[in-house]
Amino acid sequence: MDGGLSPRRASALEPDPAPSRLHRVSPTVLDRALALRAEDPHRSARTIIQLLEWQGEIAPGSLAHSTLTYHLRRRQAAPYQPAPPAETFRRRQAPRAMAEWQGDYGSYGIMENQRRNAR
User: Fold this and answer.
1) Which of 8, 22, 57, 114 is deepest in the core (most CB within 10 A)?
2) How far is residue 30's CA from residue 15's CA, in Å, rounded to a whole number?
3) Rounded distance between C-alpha atoms, residue 96 and residue 52, angstroms
4) How many of the other CB atoms lie within 10 Å of CB of 24?
5) Structural domain count of the chain
6) Burial of 14 (0-12, 13-18, 19+ CB in 10 A)
7) pLDDT the model gives residue 20
8) For residue 93, how far is the Cα from the chain centroid?
9) What Cα–Cα distance (Å) separates residue 24 from each residue in 29, 53, 91, 111?
10) What pLDDT score does 1 carry?
11) Is residue 15 part of a domain?
């Protein structure tokens, strides 16, 4: 033996090929989905799929909403994403290290010391 793997075992270490139909949508269905999105930009991917199924352009359950969303995002036809709110709070920071200290003390500690001394 030469110390290497047999061809059968070596082939087990090779990665499996990716599925060929991953994210695959026919161009006509995709064009129709883009047209439906253009009609109403707030239409969700699930609604578009439902309309395509009702119109008989695709078989029920043949197109996942994640796949359609993927293709809509690639074509910059994804739904409107609102901007983050303008009012945000900033983190409080000291001008330099150890510049600000905060303590929680009061007269209770002083009174405890006086009570001990009074005995």
Assistant:
1) 57
2) 31
3) 61
4) 9
5) 1
6) exposed
7) 56
8) 30
9) 11, 17, 46, 77
10) 47
11) no
pTM: 0.51
Domain that holds residue 49: 22-74
Q: Is residue 26 part of a domain?
A: yes
If phi > 0 it is left, if psi is from -120 to 50 it is alpha, else beta; for residue 56 that is left
- Dihedral angle computed from the Cα positions of residues 64, 66, 71 and 74, in that order, rounded to the nearest 10 degrees: 180
Cβ pair 36, 51 in contact under 8 A: yes
Q: How many residues does the chain have?
A: 119
Cβ-based neighbours of 49, under 8 Å, separated by 6 or more: 33, 58, 63, 65, 68
Those residues of the chain that have pLDDT short of 70 are 1-5, 18-23, 78-82, 102-119
